[in-house]
Amino acid sequence: MTALRFGVNYTPTHGWFHHWLDFDLDEVRADLDSIAALGLDHIRVFPLWPVFQPNRTLIRPRAVEQLVRLVDAAAERGLDVNVDGLQGHLSSFDFIPSWTTTWHRRNLFTDPSVAEGQAGYLRALAEALADRPNFLGMTVGNEINQFSAAPHPDPDPVTHRQAADWLRRMLAACEQGAPGRCHLHASYDAAWYHDGHPFTPAHSAQLGAMTAVHSWVFNGTAQRHGATGTATEQHAAYLIELSKAWADRPDRPVWLQEVGAPAPHIPPEQAAAFTEATVAGALDCPDVWGVTWWCSHDVDRALADFPELEYGLGLLTNDREVKPAGQAIARIVREWRGREHRPPPRTTALMIDVGEAHGEPARAGCAPGGEFFEAWMRLAAQGARPTTVLAELAQDAGHLASRGITEVVTAPDTVHTAHPKGAHR
User: Fold this and answer.
1) Each residue of 299-331: pLDDT tens digit?
2) Helix (H) or strand (E) holding 215
3) Number of helices and strands (H, E) in the chain?
4) 231 to 131, 223, 241, 262, 326: CA distances (angstroms)
5) Residue 156 backbone dihedrals phi, psi, to 5 degrees
6) What's the pLDDT score for residue 416?
């Protein structure tokens, strides 16, 4: 039986991620109690890279010990833990150690000494947790691809080949530290949507133990389609199915690692309905490993300078009271507990032609408002349960059969008919 996993990205109520500076295990335990009460089975946690590795050759033993204590506290509450390593970027703030910036400015992806320090750090965290049964594995970093190109104000340029080499090295370091665990990497949606972005769909869908997708509808989706539009409610499902066009095997697991209900794009009074629709759409996709909501608790409004939408994304308030979205997640967890997740194949595939699919593909058409994106959403609105296939594989009978695809359509096919019969077989 394939058991779905339901979890949350842990945002501490006491000091947000700055809690590592004043680590209080009792506060952490209280937070974890409130998470476990929702019926969730895992959390994703975020050590702050400059706090844990303030110098390239210094990984602070006390900080690592605190991370281990947090993981042990989670185990006591029946929660497994995924650990993000290179933080990196969180909720609009960058956390980069001093040995990579200003007077010591070095490229995060191509400088040999920086890469050596990063790999050593990831290996050390993984090794410290390798004997913990509830340690799921490492995520290389939280959306670290945002450092590689615009719109970051001070990007670290890298080619797509260099990005692939860097990812392989970081994933290998995680594996060296904790062999056999589920190590992966995660990008924000520029990897899927931005032409020329050096982190590519192929990187996401082929490197690491599974594919991670982060679904945020403030990227133009909700602005264009509204809070209750098909495209808004199906955005997470779309990214899951988009990833399968590049996947290195038909059954590669996909983790919806981040998804949230950002106000005002999703009004607070509609957050529960959005949550239920989003999760239902995601769980109608085969090979989903699990859903991990962003985030556990609201950000304390005593903390300054966050974008307004970041303050209210929690399933629980900063006082650990369950919000409507949290109640919705708890209902979903109860409904799925003990059930097998085996949705039927998505038999209709929308063909995507992106040019150099495994180099730097042309991705603008995949973004909200793009021809491919809007065509996929038309099919979804018509009840077709679409998936995706690369143009180079659209007539590969073996590939289509391995994925259960019986019909391939193109974007123009979707304009005039409710359920077009594909010209490609």
Assistant:
1) 999 999 999 999 999 999 999 999 999 999 999
2) strand 211-215
3) 15, 12
4) 43, 11, 13, 15, 23
5) -105, 100
6) 66
Q: Is the pTM of this model over 0.90?
A: yes
CA-angle at 312, arms to 227 and 231, nearest 5°: 20
Domains, the chain, in order of start with CATH, read 5-336 (3.20.20.80), 348-416 (no CATH)
Amino acid at 380: A
- What's the CA gap between 16 and 300, in Å, rounded? 7
Write the pLDDT tens digit of every residue in 37-67: 999 999 999 999 999 999 999 999 999 999 9
Distance of CA 149 to the CA centre of its chain: 19
Q: Where are the alpha helices (DSSP H) in 226-370?
A: 230-233, 235-244, 271-283, 324-336
Strands 89-90 and 93-94, by their bridges, are antiparallel
Residues 115 and 163: beta-carbon distance below 8 Å: no
Which amino acid would we find at residue 211? T
> What are the residue ranges of helices labelled H in 23-111?
25-36, 49-52, 61-76
**How far does Cα 342 stand from its chain's mean position?**
22
Question: Could you tell me the two tokens for 224?
Answer: 């264009």
328-355 pLDDT tens trace = 999 999 999 989 899 999 999 999 999 9
